Amino acid sequence: MSDEKKCRECGKSFVGIFGSVSPTGPRTIAKFKKYDLDLDGMCIFCAEKLVNEKNKCRAEDKVKLQKRLEAVRRELLESILVQTVPHYESLGGEILGVASRFSVIGTGPITAIASAFTDMFGKESIAYLEKIRTGEANAMNMAKLQCLELGGNLISGLALSVSEATSGNGMLMISCVGTAVRTPHISENFSEYTALKREIEKRPLWGTFSTAAAQE
Questions:
Q1: pLDDT in tens, 51-60
Q2: 148 or 165: whose pLDDT is higher?
Q3: Is 124 exposed, middle or buried (0-12, 13-18, 19+ CB in 10 A)?
Q4: Do the Cβ atoms of 23 and 14 come closer than 8 Å?
């Protein structure tokens, strides 16, 4: 900790009764030094102001990175190929593991009534079909996301199945299982996606200055 008798920013004295301020404590200085912020020789008011300003800029940068990450993720998810047969060996690539996700969706009383009505006339239940299609889309999108997180761009041998998740309580479970594969034709955006994830992970929350100062 600095031996200065006044704040290096505002110039107010650390000693005396009138016009004096408290210096930033050693624990707080050490805490924020890990984030490349030098609070040594600063009063608690100037130190808090600096931390808040840097934290605001940091949060704004992180939001921008997260927005870009979401945009790149959407592009990559759209580019992931899904096929119900094993991928051709001629494509090459690396098998990364299983990509499996499940969607549990409620049918609700209205769907049951609509289905009973169509059953009465021997027609197909559109209400149930729409629920199943929604569940299939949800399960497949989640499987694609898992494939992406594994580093793949293809789901090979995809299988979809529908079953009742509860006993007579109107819940359907749609499962989606396949093999995540990374082919040589992976999108150029994938390298940007991994770089953005690393950059966001390097920006953890600091915690407030007041919380750190209170622990002195």
A1: 999 989 988 9
A2: 148
A3: exposed
A4: yes
φ, ψ dihedrals at 75, nearest 5°: -65, -40
The residue whose two tokens read 């051709």 is 88
Q: How many Cβ atoms sit within 10 Å of the Cβ of residue 162?
A: 17
How would DSSP label each residue in 165-206?
Answer: SSSSSSEEEEEEEEEEEE-TT--THHHHHHHHHHHHHT----
Global pTM value: 0.69
- Mean pLDDT, the chain, integer: 83
Residue 4 CA, distance from chain mean position: 45
- Tell me phi and psi for residue 188, to 5 degrees: -65, -20
* CA–CA dist 197, 66 (Å, integer): 8
